[in-house]
Design brief:
It is built from 1 helix and 28 strands. By secondary structure, the protein is mainly beta. It has a 4-stranded antiparallel beta sheet with strand order 3-2-1-28, with no helix packed on it. Strands 4-5-6-7 form a 4-stranded antiparallel beta sheet, with no helix packed on it. A 4-stranded antiparallel beta sheet has the order 8-9-10-11, with no helix packed on it. The protein is globular, with a radius of gyration of 22 Å. GO terms for molecular function: 6-phosphogluconolactonase activity. This is 6-phosphogluconolactonase.
Length: 371
């Protein structure tokens, strides 16, 4: 290579390197917002979140439908399923294909027997479970490669009641989710004080265990630790968290310990709502409506015992749902009564939450899901 060619070659290298350096890094990710539509919202929205700064972009309406109170994405990110919570009317489940730009294209709608659909999640590829709070039933459904609902769905009716005459006169299936191994589907039933465990694989859905929680506790939501070693259940009525380990059969049925969500002085009028572990498993967070708080617990690395480290109140208004962003540095809270989504900074070392000043105005947000 002569000197002229060498100079040209290195000049091109410098130019290409400069172009690469000057290209901005996109730190934004999409997230979807489910809402109640009786006070101004129209359905499912999408917004963008900057994982570096914590800033939230303006929301975009993607799908008009009544009360999409819970959403979930498939493991491959190609499908979004939404339930339309409609009181005493037979619920609808909406299947959407997610486009490359995040927009939703309706693939199919399913109406089935049941009341008050409030939760949906994928337990296997193309297989979903829906909890029906009003009728106390659980619906197992499947979709084909085009997102169309198959006709071989199954429904399981829960039975029983609890001691709370106002809230537990009948079964109230709430959250439903598959365990980390993909083996069993767990369903929290607030009305019967049970965690129902199902084997959904095979021709017929089969109940394999019923885990009794404290009488009158009202289990609502639950989360599995990233290590898969424990499951934490959030009890709405008692405002407590139970921590469970697997028994000899692999079912999370051995109760380790129970902690109060809030001190006795703050518990009046509260109802526990949502629960999530941090990505590293060192902290657990739970929201409490009525008392308008997000509670942070430190998780012991060996015993998984929970120690409260913070009761965060600033800017919180009926926090029905919340989510930790993909970076783990922020926690986004859906304030149902505050008509906004607030962004909190999460200290990775202490687990403590602090305000960022960032928020997004949305009428009655009740579910947040990152793409």
């Amino acid at each position: 290579m002569n000197k002229l060619n060498a100079l040209v070659f290195f000049g091109i290298l410098l130019f290409v390197s400069a172009c690469r350096v000057s290209q901005p890094i996109d730190n934004t990710v999409r997230f979807y917002i489910g809402t109640y539509t009786s006070s101004g919202s129209e359905g499912i929205y999408m917004a963008r979140f900057d994982t570096l700064t914590g800033m939230v972009s303006a929301d975009t309406l993607l799908a008009r439908l009544p009360n999409p109170s819970y959403l979930n994405l498939s493991a491959d990110g190609q499908w979004l399923m939404a339930v339309s919570e409609s009181g005493g009317v037979a619920p609808n489940v909406f299947s959407y294909r997610v486009q490359p730009n995040g927009e939703l294209v309706l693939a199919d709608t399913l109406r089935y027997n049941g009341q008050g659909a409030c939760y949906v999640s994928e337990y296997a590829a193309g297989a979903w479970v829906v909890s029906n709070y009003g009728s106390g039933s659980v619906t197992f459904i499947k979709t084909d490669s085009l997102g169309k609902f198959r006709p071989d769905g199954q429904q399981v009716q829960h039975v029983g009641s609890g001691p709370n005459a106002d809230r537990q006169q009948q079964p109230h299936a709430h959250s439903a989710m598959v365990d980390p191994a993909g083996r069993y589907v767990y369903v929290a039933d607030l009305g019967t004080d049970r965690m129902m465990v199902y084997n959904p694989h095979g021709d017929t859905v089969r109940c394999v265990a019923q885990i009794a929680t404290a009488s009158g506790s009202g289990p609502r939501h639950f989360a599995f630790h990233p290590s898969s070693k424990v499951m934490a259940t959030l009890n709405e009525l008692h405002q407590t968290v139970d921590v469970w380990m697997p028994d000899s059969t692999g079912v999370y049925a051995d109760l380790c310990h129970t902690v109060l969500l809030l001190p006795d002085t703050l518990r009046d009028g509260g109802t526990a709502a949502d629960i999530h572990f941090s990505p590293d498993g060192r902290f657990l967070y739970a929201s409490n409506r009525g008392n308008h708080a997000v509670v942070a617990f430190a998780v012991d690395a060996n015993s998984f015992e929970l120690t409260p480290v913070q009761h965060y109140l600033e800017g919180i208004s009926r926090p029905r749902n919340f989510v930790i962003d993909p970076s783990g540095r922020f926690l986004l809270v859906a304030n149902q009564d505050g008509d906004n989504i607030v962004v909190l900074q999460r200290d990775l070392h202490t687990g403590l939450l602090s305000p960022t000043g960032h928020q997004l105005e949305v009428k009655s947000p009740v579910c947040l899901k990152f793409d």
